[in-house]
Amino acid sequence: MDTTRQGAAVNARGIGVEGPRGWAFRGVDVSAEPGALIAVQGPSGSGRTCLLLALAGRMRITEGHATVAGFPLPKRMGTVRGRTAIAHVPGIADLEPALTVGEHLQEQALLGRRLKGSVFGALPWGRRYKDATRARINAALAAAGLDPDTLPKGLRTTVRDLERLEALRLSIALAVMHDPQLLAVDDIDLKLSADERELAWQLLRDLALTGITVVAACTDAPADALLVSTAPADTAAAPAPEPAPVTIPDQHGPHVQPTLQAQHPPQGPQEQQDRHSSQDRQAPHGQADTRKEEAAHAFAKTGRA
């Protein structure tokens, strides 16, 4: 593993990711030099993981402009993916509980780059390949601070028998095995004690000192990290948006009915209440129920918008 590699500079202005259910995050700015330690802080559900994946070229940004290692996103997502790695991301970079530490490392080595030069040197049974694989695995373990001698069964220890911090170190070792310029780590402080969190952050600091740019999602960022927040802006004081009217067809043609009447009683004169009651009595029972259901549905849809 090359310890003199150059990290990736990250520059982003007003980036956001919108999905089928709305915005995962938006309006995020990042400006970091190579080898920086970036902490993505925000409450659960604020889009921290999506931001990590976007900066690693694994999720398409839908607004704003960003470059990673000088390559624009989303235009050069493939190039950015080849220069970045992710670790500890649920559902994407999971460890297999039934496999051993050694099996994970060997599998990652097989998925990595082949040796340059002779074709025979790249074959799994070639001596050059075995020596290079062993050296790469040892370097990755050292970079992640994972000592096999401290594990219950060494490299034969299964993932289900690892402590949380040990599993985090293994995930990072797999990610850095092939010299990424940027490493994205999710939930760095999830279910860790205070001492374990400090050890985890120190690991990321050490990686950043080797030149790699580190981006980590967390709930509580250290003071020496470059803070990027995904928390949404405070909208508590903002006035509630006016709900859109809903058009309800009947046998006399479509007409517009305010949607708030399904949720709030009218505040006007008594004759306004009598007029609405008279309209409900004049309409067939099924049609009145349909109008109430459609109005409630429209109000709920407006509240989600």
Automatic annotation (TrEMBL):
GO terms for molecular function: ATP binding; ATP hydrolysis activity; ATPase-coupled transmembrane transporter activity. Coiled coil: none annotated. Pfam families: ABC_tran. One of its GO terms (cellular component) is membrane. Residues 10-286 form the ABC transporter domain. It is found in: Membrane. Keywords: ATP-binding, Membrane, Nucleotide-binding, Transmembrane, Transmembrane helix, Transport. PROSITE patterns: ABC_TRANSPORTER_2. Residues 235-305 are annotated as: Disordered. Its main location: membrane. Residues 272-296 have a biased composition (Basic and acidic residues). This is ATP-binding cassette domain-containing protein. It comes from Streptomyces kasugaensis.
